[in-house]
Amino acid sequence: MITISLCMIVKNEEEVLEQCLSSVEDICDEMIIVDTGSTDQTKDIAKKFTDKVLDFEWIDNFSAARNFSFRQATSDYILWLDADDVLLEEDQNKLKALKKKLDFSVDAVSMIYHIAFDEYGNPTFSFRRNRLVKRERNFKWIGPVHEYLEVYGHILPADIAITHRKSTKSNDSNTSDRNLKIYEKRVEQGEKFTPRDLFYYGNELKDHQYYEKAIKYYQEFLNTKKGWVEDEIRACINMAACYRALGDLDKEIDALVQSIKYDVPRPEVSCRLGDLYKEKKLFKKAIIWYQLAIQVDLENSMGFQEKVYSTWYPHLQLCVCNWGIGEKELAWEHNKKAKMYRPDDPQVAYNEQVFAAYFANK
Q1: Do residues 291 and 318 make contact, with C-beta atoms less than 8 angstroms apart?
Q2: Distance in angstroms (rounded) separating the CA atoms of residues 188 and 318
Q3: Strands (E), 81-184
Q4: pTM for the complete prediction?
Q5: Is residue 198 domain-shared with residue 129, that is, in the same domain?
Q6: Record's SMART domains (predicted)?
Q7: Residue 361 lies in domain
């Protein structure tokens, strides 16, 4: 059976760290917690679980801190988490089972990362990340911010999920501005950005509502033609969102359509295009796009997946559109499918009342 080192970097995580470490303490053979300048009880909490609590002077470089943590590991494989991540009981059991049977030929294990949820606890935004990596391969983290772990070789996709449980402190303005400030400092210093930097700087600008500047960097990223295809698609989607915020409907459409040149339409793209036709009451054209959103299979994709656009949302819109063209029975079927995902949704409930009245008078 393999051994596992947990490697983490932390700062002021007293609110969430214990739940994170508790969820993996029975799985990991050692825990290495690297603190980058906590002023709360983070280090004291970490010391309840391990004596390997180390300090690292913060230099505005996440990769440097993560690589330092990796260098301290002694086990066969390294598991990395953030302090606001947990493994739920089902996923703990899956990881325990994997630990017992994992073949040493595997260089890395990718796991699903759930980072947003609806009011019913269903994941709404997920993607895959390489979470468990063979120590002897000496994989490195790259990039000062929005860093990534450069992994290659035999990668095993597992059905294990990491659940993100955001701290209430994460809305603090200093925390939310941190990445943007790091990028701005690099711009001021005249640093040449990689395609990945351009993309993630665009994301930070968009999130802080600097829409025109975000569009500029997304376009610069796309012009390099050297980005990961999933990032290229996301850049187009995010540009569309920026144009919508700016009130430019035509360019929003152009950005959505541009995403299709990179791969099949993502469900979010299909739904947004469907929305545009639905707003104009062009229901038959809208139906084409909503149907496509349901049909595209991206289950094993490493890219971002917003489940809302491939589950209840297109079904709810198909209900409206089919009603609009007189296909009442089909509309009813789609409303029932939407209800499977959102049993207490007020729009679904309203539709049921409409259908009840319609069928009663039929």
Answers
A1: yes
A2: 49
A3: 85-86, 108-117, 123-134, 140-142, 148-150, 155-164
A4: 0.84
A5: no
A6: TPR
A7: 274-362
